[in-house]
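Section 3.1 - Work completed
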Amino acid sequence: MDKSILLLGGGGEIVTLPAPCFLVEHDEGLVLFDTGLASEAAGDPAAAYGPLAAMFEMTFPEECRLDRQIEALGFRTMDVKRVVLSHAHFDHTGGLHHFPHAEGFVGSGELRYAHNADPHTAGFFRSKDLEAAGRIRWNELPAGYDHDMFGDGSVTLLSLPGHTPGALGLQLRFEDGHTLILTGDAAHLRENIDHTVGMPFDADVVHKLDSLRKLKLLGTRPDVTMWVNHDPQD
């Protein structure tokens, strides 16, 4: 795609845009951050996404299905106890149907907005995924509040609204003292953070810029590594 889709004023082409999910092991059980593309899209993205598949030139091999990747790591989808949704765009919600048993964590107002989005963002929400979301018991993270999930500092939900009303990131603190921050789509590329610049399809520009400043500030800490969700370099 053209970089201008992800960075206001950006130029040039992005050849490969990753769409990752993250499985976190904790003594209290597995935590999944985002659920990726829909399983039924594997091998034939157009069957699930129609024109979107052509617009983004999706490549989605069968082995990249979320359930198969989890199984390849030696787990089952039933082993996932908690699902954290960075936001409700289609490339993050496709696997929600695998986890009706899980406890969900989502940003305040996210799912309500997904059902009644502004016209310029409505095309990024998929009704089938929102139906699957309706079968999960969700805990809503208030805007501006960061939540220590287990009370031990190891897994913290970060409030990063702007791209969507309830956009979240995830901060992981390891036993060696190192911290990894997963930005979700609060930033799509490192340039978003470096230049404090959003993208054309942000729901709330003012809060988006604040969230980018928050990420930039967190990135100044010497213990922090930041993984920008869709950045090909990361």
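Second construct:
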Amino acid sequence: MNNLETERLYLRSFEKTDGPALYDYLSDEEVVKYEPYKAFSMEEAEQEAIRRSGNPDFYAVCLKDGTLIGNVYFSKGAFDTWMIGYVFNRSFWGHGYASEGVQAVVQHAFTTLDAHRITALCNPENTASWQLMERIGMRREGTLKKNVFFWKDEQGNPIWQDTYEYGLLKEEYRV
């Protein structure tokens, strides 16, 4: 994994000692509201930091002073298509850090990794996420109706949710 740098951010591999910083945002129910997992305990966050430290699909997104404020997931699939996702500490929402970090990974993918296409998925209720995708030039390619569930109701029935699918081709990308 290549470390990436922007005007305000440094994106690096996770370190085994990043557990407390992961806990700062993955323990926040508002932050994980649309994720396929519940809020983390400190022990779970410490284990997740260890797991991510060996996983090249996760970038730890840090301010220039080293403060870990979020992560970008970026994984290669078939046909030179990459999937991107992101989660950021709520204390840093609204300052453009997520857009800046995601944009750095997208630029790296198209200029260095020779990616053909980048895709992303989000819950339609997650307005901030799909607005970020559109802001960086991704296009909404469709709405998948009731295609996924992460949780079940009291009777054990799946709680289905829709998904927006976004994409960006290399020839569409503008620095």
